[in-house]
Amino acid sequence: MLRSVLRVASLRVSSPSSAMAMKSGAIVGSRMIHYSMSNRTPGAQFQKLQPIRFYSAAASNLSKDDVLTRVKDVIKTFNKNTDAEKISLETAFNKDLGLDSLDTVELLVAVEEEFEIEIPDKIADDLKTVGETVEYILSNPESN
Amino acid sequence: MAAAPSKTQILSLYRQLIKNSKQFTNYNFREYFLRKSRLEFKQNMLQQDPVKVNELVSKANEELAVLKRQAIVSQLYTFDKTVVEPLDTHHKKH
Amino acid sequence: MLLRNSLVSNSLRATQVSLRSIYSSYNNTLSNRSYHVSMVNRAAAGAATANKQAIEIPDDIALETHTDVQAATKDQADQRSAASSDAEITDALTSGTTALNYAYRQDTGFGTRPIYMDMQATTPTDPRVLDTMLKFFTGLYGNPHSNTHSYGWETNNAIEDARKDIASLINADPREIIFTSGATESNNMVIKGIPRFYKKTKKHIITTRTEHKCVLEAARSMINEGFEVTFLNVDKDGLIDLNELEAAIRPDTCVVSVMAVNNEIGVIQPLKEIGELCKKHKVYFHTDCAQAYGKIKLDVNDMKIDLLSISSHKIYGPKGIGALYVRRRPRVRLEPLLSGGGQERGLRSGTLAPPLIAGFGEAARLLKQEFANDEAHINRLSKKLVDGLLSLEHTTLNGSALHRYPGCVNVSFAYVEGESLLMALRDIALSSGSACTSASLEPSYVLHSLGADDAMAHSSIRFGIGRFTTEEEIDYVIKAISERVKFLRELSPLWEMVQEGIDLDSIEWSGH
């Protein structure tokens, strides 16, 4: 596990000619800088990661239906009592699923794992519904 | 003493604790720290006293540091998964 | 993300360092070992190009160590990877008629390492304890008895902090804590040290039949030194009779030693009442709290305890360290086992081990911090396990149902042999009793003392629940035990007779 993390990370650092970098050149570069900056000043993380919004230009190539189905699965694994049939894009975490703010944090961590992305704190705090979450996943080119 | 931490900061701390607990390769430690984080945050959810909140947050920060280090140690020395652990939890998709 | 970056740069640095060392070893070996030259040469040449083109990180094998000491489960893992197709698995499932084929869960979607349910033998080291200990292996290596420099002061401070944490859990003064190598040494110190110190006037020791082996053996060795020992009986619940204890106390009795929580059946002795009795008759009261410390509420003043043995590795701390509480007021005197530099109030000479003690201290601190949550967790799981196991027919809980530590559950499965059940439970780490005696096939002396017959004593299994046990594991254990007890009973002729309604007591066994 650690080894694979290392490999992924080293790929980013070491081979600027990788396919990912080809696709979104400058952004990868700037992202690297943010990583190392946040490394030194963890508090500055949110501000520095703002350019992540650029990603909406290079959105992920997942289909919306697919993302919704997988988010539903995550919710179902997270809370076994949920009726998956009733989940739609309009479903609100708090109002409809009865999740408090802590549960929502945990659910979004599970979503991050499922799609292999990192949702910045500031964005995660604003995700209140299944629809918003799906939109964010679609907007993040790293999602897969 | 500094002002009480904001809700965003506390949620961010909680997120970090959950993420780092999940980094343990040892099933029992992973489950324990997840359980502990959940329980303690839920137990103190209604805590209003800023002094108490500050205390809890600084303690959780210390524990987060320990979790970060020990999650790495757990990744350095890995063992077979136990009989209650699914071998591949990730990506059965597509 | 922080972690990733730091690790990347670390491993980069590590790679460079190792390349450099290859170079230097190349130069060194060049002159006298021609055999190696060609190989090293190639490596060095490769290293040189790697250095020029910069950064091609090799697969860093040394960074992640998969521990290869799992022989017990390795066969099974191999078998599973071999039997990868569904057909083969079904085949293995249906063709197997021996108990061992039922020893594992057969679906290959899960890991192979057994569930750890032997918390009375030892507990896993808490990661927070390890975190405390690690710095004593890296930077804080001073001898705590060196008082001329800061290296010594650092470790000495750590030891005194640990002493405070350990003392506070039993409401003692830090100065009353003596570090030893473990509860076995602590128990020996008391059982041998007190009678030896008072040998001119006192000749008598009282203990119980269900004590840990180290107390029983130490007491037996004192018989050879001319002392008399009374071994108190226990009732069917495993508890001692206070009247019997009072009757046993003589004017020349020097110490009463009764364990707090039994290591095999988990029953809690009435410590407070025993303490009062001992105080009334002016006899020292020692209690072996290896299984009790930090798991049930203990107070040396309230319970009138004079000496108390503690073990670190039963409380998620490191192995190889323990402590003995020795009351200062009124002072309890005992002859030390070890002669030497007079550390630990002269009672236990030898340099203290700061990494172990700091870990032990942290483990004690955590016990106090987590007490309520741990207790609630263990109670809940224990109830679930007991209910689940006792719902099987002809199954009994050993020891008192009321006065017990819920983290130790000892259950007898009639008409099944404990050892064969254990063999059939290779996916759960369990024991039929104390780890020290489980090498022999002797039935447990503790269960014998409760009046259990050989068959019952043979068919008992001890389940240990701790801080790190999960509900998922308990569910697995209940299911596995139910299935395999049923399976083994099917094989048992005795079980067949019971099913036919034959009273086993009416049978006259021949031979033997």
Describe this structure in words.
By secondary structure, chain A is mostly helical. Chain A is 60% helix and 0% strand. Chain A has two domains: 2-56, no CATH class; 64-139, Non-ribosomal Peptide Synthetase Peptidyl Carrier Protein, Chain A (Orthogonal Bundle), CATH 1.10.1200. Chain A has seven helices and no strands. Chain B has one domain (9-76). The model of chain B has no long low-confidence stretch (mean pLDDT 87). The longest helix of chain C has 37 residues, at 354-390. Chain C is of the alpha/beta class and 512 residues long. Chain C has three domains: 24-65, no CATH class; 115-123 and 370-506, Aspartate Aminotransferase, domain 1, CATH 3.90.1150.10; 127-367, Aspartate Aminotransferase, domain 2 (3-Layer(aba) Sandwich), CATH 3.40.640. Classes of the chains: A mainly alpha (144), B mainly alpha (94), C alpha/beta (512). Strand 1 of chain B pairs parallel with strand 1 of chain C, so a sheet runs across the interface.
> What is the number of independent domains of chain B?
1
What is the percent of helical residues of chain B?
55-70%
Q: What's the overall geometry of chain A?
A: globular
Shape of chain B: elongated
Low-confidence residue ranges of chain B: none
Query: How many separate domains of chain A?
Result: 2
H-E order of chain B = HHHE
User: What is the multimeric organization of the chains shown?
Assistant: heterotrimer
Portion of residues within helices of chain A:
55-70%
Beta-strand content of chain A: under 5%
CATH fold assignment of the largest domain in chain A:
Non-ribosomal Peptide Synthetase Peptidyl Carrier Protein, Chain A
In round numbers, the mean pLDDT of chain A is 68
Main beta sheet of chain A: strand number and arrangement? none
Q: Give me the strand/helix succession of chain A.
A: HHHHHHH
Distance between the termini of chain B: 52 Å
Unreliable runs of chain A: 1-57
Largest interface: B-C, 35 and 40 residues
Kindly name the structural category of chain A.
mainly alpha
Q: Main beta sheet of chain B: strand number and arrangement? A: none
Distance between the termini of chain A: 18 Å
